[in-house]
Amino acid sequence: MEVSQLIELMNAVSEAGLTDFCYEENGVSVKIKKHPEKKIVASAPVEMIAPTAVAAPLQVCADTSVSADTDVSEEVTGNIVKSPLVGTFYSASSPDAAPYVQVGDMVKKGQVLGIVEAMKLMNEIESEFDGTVKAILVKNGDLVEFDQPMFVIE
Prior knowledge:
mainly beta; CATH 2.40.50.100; four-stranded antiparallel beta sheet; 10 strands; 31% strand; AcCoA_biotinCC; lipid biosynthesis
């Protein structure tokens, strides 16, 4: 499965509102688990990217019910730092290291906030703003999507 096909698959799963999904084709297995979204109020307009359709029919092989622990709506204001790619978020450089930032920390533009691992490559996520970390919207080990809000800097 190519990266473009994987992105189309993730968009289709997201558009369908599924929380868990797995897909198998030619011995390749993909499992997607989406965490409940939090409502974010940005100080600047946020662009939405329209998902693309997947040509092949999808077969769901996991529970598709919405989880009961969904946050009602948590409003956060400030500058939003978003994920530039799809991958796994890590808050520190190694499992035994301290996190790059915590809520309340002062950060400068260009300072590393975390890492997103994509296809065995570690990509540093840098702050686009000077300010204080008001919220960290992802947890260590979470799967993040392209353009997903990760940090709020005020």
